[in-house]
Design brief:
By secondary structure, this protein is an alpha+beta fold. The protein has seven helices and five strands, in the order ααααββαβαββα. It has a domain at 78-218: GAF domain (Beta-Lactamase, 2-Layer Sandwich). Helices cover 42% and strands 12% of the residues. Strands 2-1-5-4-3 form a five-stranded mixed beta sheet. A hairpin with a 7-residue loop joins strand 4 and strand 5. Helix 2 (54-97) packs parallel to helix 7 (202-218). The radius of gyration is 28 Å and the shape is elongated. The relative contact order is 0.12.
Length: 219
């Protein structure tokens, strides 16, 4: 017969925390008066009071206005940069229409038309004139899975992608050229951020790559 043993005491569940109400939030903010000051972006989410009384609330209203102006300024700057790149993209595509050698046009004419330091067609196909040769698997390694375009603020493998212009390139863009056969990239290199904006440039990069693919297929 087995010896008798007392049952173990049940492990108590941790007490369930009640959801915070408005009074809890207000009390927490009173205990942490510098919380909003350290997170000015939150002012854009707050609804301002209908009337302002006292310097404290006036300061909060001023902070909300400052945060909103900063957000608007950033949007305006991104739109201005994206619009400039879109206009330059149209000029580059027009240059392809009369081109007999699209890869040469990209290498020789596009840097001026796009305001960039370097432009090139890079392919895993055998070496050819006016094209950069990429080792097998390079395109899959450089472009994240599921992405057709990529703007890189800190580009890598500069000698491979930008050849003699590598020392001039501080940011670049890669776009998959939709061609059958060996994977092919459009490679663009810039010295200044405004020349290759990270916001709003994906559509223009896809447009350039598609136009280039059509020109290469025609040639």
């Amino acid at each position: 017969m087995l010896p008798f043993s007392a049952p173990h005491d049940p492990v108590p569940f941790p007490p369930r925390r009640a959801p915070m109400n408005e009074d809890d939030v207000a009390a927490w903010l009173r205990d942490h008066p510098g919380f909003l000051a350290g997170r000015p972006d939150l002012y854009r989410l707050l609804t301002p009071p209908r009337r302002v009384h006292g310097d404290g609330l006036a300061d909060h209203m001023a902070a909300m206005i400052t945060a909103e102006r900063a957000a608007t300024r950033h949007l305006a700057e991104a739109a201005r940069e994206g619009g400039g790149f879109a206009a330059r993209t149209q000029s580059a595509v027009l240059a392809l229409i009369a081109s007999r050698d699209p890869a040469e046009t990209v290498a020789q004419e596009w840097p001026v038309l796009l305001g960039l330091e370097h432009c090139a067609v890079a392919s895993e196909a055998p070496p050819a004139a006016h094209r950069l040769f990429l080792p097998a698997g390079s395109v899959a390694r450089l472009l994240p899975a599921g992405r057709d375009t990529l703007v890189r603020a800190t580009p890598t493998e500069l000698p491979l992608l930008h050849a003699e212009a590598a020392a001039l390139v501080l940011r670049d863009a890669l776009a998959l050229v939709p061609l059958p056969g060996a994977p092919t990239l459009l490679v663009l290199g810039a010295r200044h951020e405004a020349a290759l904006p990270s916001r709003g440039s994906s559509m223009q990069l896809q447009f350039l790559a598609a136009a280039l693919a059509a020109a290469l297929a025609r040639a």
